[in-house]
Amino acid sequence: MSASKILSQKIKIALIQLSGSSPDKMANLQRAATFVERALKEQPDTKLVVLPECFNSPYSTDQFRKYSEVINPNEPSTSVRFLSNLANRFRIILVGGTIPELDPKTNKIYNTSIIFNEDGELIDKHRKVHLFDVDIPNGISFHESETLSPGEKPTTIDTSYGKFGVGICYDMRFPELAMLSARKGAFAMIYPSAFNTVTGPLHWHLLARSRAVDNQVYVMLCSPARNLQSSYHAYGHSIVVDPRGKIVAEAGEGEEIIYAELDPEVIESFRLAVPLTKQRRFDVYPDVNAH
Ligand SMILES: NC(=O)CC(=O)C(=O)O
């Protein structure tokens, strides 16, 4: 596929760095709607909007089940219905952050991103594949696997602009998902995320820029704002990185919207200048797309 076809035209995007979610799910959804409306006022032709990880539930292993919803497009749950209406009302592609998902067949809970097209149709979902289980001495211990189960598939979404890949937070530490989407022709990787004040300063920018440069794609990380009243202190710093590894937009720590325009010419010209896509040595190492 030629680089010019990867992203069919320029596209304006917004990442909404919402405040760490309150215990009131409906209030969190309303707040997301207020900010989406504001994004469309401030940048009227925004076509793609991203919300943070766990934007309408506490980011806490003992709360995931309580806040979980069954995701069934035929019987839309509270968040699915709400986000679908939002996407349709503003004619946007909406990467609806993540919500805790209950699979009624297995009784398992997942950390799941739900993605809507401009008609409000739920076009796909991504279940966090790599669970955040860490013990950093004098830093942070967190074990999503206490209550969550891991997703089992990579996710690449087809839209009217082209394809993008979706991962969730810790997924960005594993280059394989981004690589798989890029090999399928994605123009961007989008990660609703919630790094923290220990790992954020160490790795947030590094990982965003690495995934961008590895694959010569745009990378978007959308974080909650920092809330020192909550048990989990999100890093903030939602960020957009271009295919050259250049940071084109970055939030601070508070509640904020950041904007960017993704440009096919930036992808194309950089891939011509540094033609990684033509220089891979699948005779030396395996092609990830061939599995
Ligand atoms: N919260 C996460 O899933 C990941 C994270 O904070 C980190 O990798 O650091």
Automatic annotation (TrEMBL):
<protein>
    <submittedName>
        <fullName>Nit3p</fullName>
    </submittedName>
</protein>
<dbReference type="GO" id="GO:0005739">
    <property type="term" value="C:mitochondrion"/>
</dbReference>
<feature type="domain" description="CN hydrolase">
    <location>
        <begin position="11"/>
        <end position="264"/>
    </location>
</feature>
<dbReference type="Pfam" id="PF00795">
    <property type="entry name" value="CN_hydrolase"/>
</dbReference>
<dbReference type="InterPro" id="IPR036526">
    <property type="entry name" value="C-N_Hydrolase_sf"/>
</dbReference>
<dbReference type="GO" id="GO:0006541">
    <property type="term" value="P:glutamine metabolic process"/>
</dbReference>
<dbReference type="GO" id="GO:0050152">
    <property type="term" value="F:omega-amidase activity"/>
</dbReference>
<dbReference type="InterPro" id="IPR045254">
    <property type="entry name" value="Nit1/2_C-N_Hydrolase"/>
</dbReference>
<dbReference type="GO" id="GO:0006107">
    <property type="term" value="P:oxaloacetate metabolic process"/>
</dbReference>
<dbReference type="InterPro" id="IPR003010">
    <property type="entry name" value="C-N_Hydrolase"/>
</dbReference>
<dbReference type="InterPro" id="IPR001110">
    <property type="entry name" value="UPF0012_CS"/>
</dbReference>
<dbReference type="GO" id="GO:0006528">
    <property type="term" value="P:asparagine metabolic process"/>
</dbReference>
<keyword id="KW-0378">Hydrolase</keyword>
